[in-house]
Amino acid sequence: MPTTRRSQHTALHGSSLVTRNLRLGRGRTSIRLERLEWAALDAICNAEGVDRHHFAMQVDRDPQRREKTLTSRVRSAILSYFVARSGLIVLQPGNGLAASLSAAQTPAEREESRN
């Protein structure tokens, strides 16, 4: 049976997905992210002065996040963070209007505005 390109890559290099545990208010859970996503998350946490657990808990509690799983919410938050800092203009889902995310708040900014 022929192997697919993906399985050959995985067999040679191992999976690029990494599973790690996170502590949230409701207990411990695990998520799987690509190595690059973990590196991006660590860069955000370093820049914002929070740890992964705090970041994930904030993302999990964010009522504006519509993703169904914590993993999806974290991935989306990572992407949103870097898009906001890049000044790129993106189409907002649902309304079709071009909107700049440059004014979007980071988790640390949202936390600061709550205090």
Structure annotation, total helices: 5
CATH class: Mainly Alpha
Q: What would you call the structural class?
A: alpha+beta
Helix content: 40-55%
Q: Give unreliable regions as ranges.
A: 1-11, 95-104
Number of beta-strand segments: 4
Helices and strands, in N-to-C order? Answer: HEEHHHEEH
The CATH topology label is Ribbon-helix-helix fold
The Rg value, from CA coordinates, equals 17 Å
Strand content: 15-25%
Reading side by side through the largest sheet, how are the strands ordered? 1-2
Distance between the termini: 60 Å
CATH architecture: Orthogonal Bundle
Pfam families: RHH_4
InterPro entries: RHH_dom, RHH_sf
Domain Ribbon-helix-helix: 18-82
Organism: Ferrovibrio terrae
Summarize the SSE layout with pairings.
Layout lengths: L4 H9 L3 E8 L2 E8 H14 L3 H10 L8 H17 L2 E3 L6 E3 L6 H8 L1
Antiparallel strand pairs: 1-2, 3-4
